[in-house]
Amino acid sequence: MAAWRDDVRQAVRGRALHAPAADRLEAFDDALIEVDAAGMIVAVQDARTEQGAARLAALADRVAVLPPGQVLLPGFVDLHIHAPQWPQRGTALDLPLEHWLGEYTFPLEARYADADYAARVYDDLVAALLANGTTTAVYFASLHLPATQILAETCLRRGQRALVGRVAMDHPEICPAAYRDDSAEQAEAQTRALIAHIRALPGNDPPLVWPAITPRFIPACTDDLLHRLGRLAAETGCHVQTHASESDWEHGHVRDRCGMTDAAALGGFGLLTRRTVLAHGNFLDDGDLRIVRDAGAGIAHCPLSNVYFADAVFPLRAALSRAVHVGLGTDIAGGASPSMLDAARHAVAMSRALDSGVDPALPRQTRGRGAARIGPVTAFWLATAGGGMVLDLPVGLFRPGYAFDAVAIDPQAPGSNFALTRGESAAQALERIVHLATRANIARVWVAGRAVISPPGSPEEGSLWRA
Ligand code: GUN
Ligand code: FE
């Protein structure tokens, strides 16, 4: 039994920020957050009240106190990342999606037939994401069942909350013979095997790692496979992840083949559920957004990747104003950075570009579409509570009933690019963090109450979260 499942209730005390809504930041100057043996938050209160003082006294040495100057945030939720593309990060971004897949990405993903290679890459990837504060990651793996099982086991061993999908792709026109499912039947059988494997992993109850049904995207899958996976989603209640309306090519391909948009087609296949994550969605129109909203499905906005493959910016504000669930993804390796803080600032910057336009040859009044900007609070919400809402999981907030998944930001860390000044408001502090914090500032990371990243030499390193 893992150490964090012992019966000791623990607490953390310190300055904390979270965003309960897309436009609302809530600050706790001196929070006392109590966590039960399963890593769930049971109480959040002001440590300086009478009741807070009583709880502090009762909990005594079970309270971990954040060092002065540090700020506790909910852990980051990366809604879309391709685990096998990790070795390609930061490279191979010169081609459009339809050529990038065949030229670079399918050959790389095919290498995961080698389970030793998968084990090495995935261990490095999961460690790097945790160090960047990603406490929940939604992974596309490759089409290899053993390598995908290794990814799930790696997440569980390192203590990262994760959704893991074995990629299904059987369409002979899009997928090369060397990297393609033999048949729809076989792809379904392997998906079933992954679901059973993850659900039975020792130590994964209550689940930290979840299986996800993962048709790569409509172009890569036959209708038969898409129908099978839709039925499997209904049968198992599993999350679903796929790419939707990502680029002109992809969007047009689906229109030509299915006679409708991605959203309508995915709905018809039974692949739009409350637990569906659609990556990108740049070309979803009003009708599509309504379909997505009515299904309770969500969108993984991947702002950097969209610049390379979509030649467009996802109309985030339009989606939020229509009550569509949205969070953020890195889309490694279509996006280059594993940092959700980077994704958050990219989301802010891209929204400004969509809002005001970018071509200086056009007059200022007509250069942009307007009403498209978001600010740092919304970006932070997307990276935390918004992502949790997309996944229908209780993560991203410091609230009773939510998991204690958190990062401690240390502005005084070596290599820091910023400082927080006394007297600055919580909104200003968050603005600096969203724009300037890096991996260097992430001092500690907890998932389900377990310390997964701790300063070297600290008493809790690699085990329990408190000294
Ligand atoms: N569409 C289908 N596969 C992929 C992929 O690996 N990356 C991105 N960005 N889009 C895809
Ligand atoms: Fe992707």
How would you characterize the overall build of this protein?
There is one protein chain. By secondary structure, the chain is α/β, with parallel strands linked by helices. It has 2 domains: 8-73 and 396-453, Roll (Urease, subunit C, domain 1), CATH 2.30.40; 76-391, TIM Barrel. It contains 15 helices and 17 strands. The strands form 2 sheets. Strands 6, 7, 8, 9, 10, 11, 12, 13 and 14 form a 9-stranded parallel β-sheet that branches. Strands 1, 2, 3, 4, 5, 15, 16 and 17 form an 8-stranded mixed β-sheet that branches. Helix 3 packs parallel to helix 4 (145-158), helix 12 (340-356) packs across helix 14 and helix 12 (340-356) crosses helix 15. The chain is globular. Residues 1-8 and 462-467 have low confidence and may be disordered. Bound molecules: guanine and fe (iii) ion.
What is the CATH C level class of the largest domain, in words? Alpha Beta
| Sheet of most strands | 9 strands, parallel
Number of helices: 15
Each distinct ligand: guanine, fe (iii) ion
What is the CA-based Rg, rounded? 22 Å
Strand content: 15-25%
Q: What is the terminal separation in angstroms? A: 20 Å
Mean pLDDT: 95
Structural class: alpha/beta
The percentage helix is 25-40%
Number of strands: 17
Overall CATH architecture of the largest domain: Alpha-Beta Barrel
Return the domain count.
2
The CATH topology of the largest domain comes to TIM Barrel
Tell me, briefly, the overall form: globular
* CATH homologous superfamily identity of the largest domain: Metal-dependent hydrolases
**Uncertain regions: pLDDT < 50 for 5+ in a row?**
1-8, 462-467
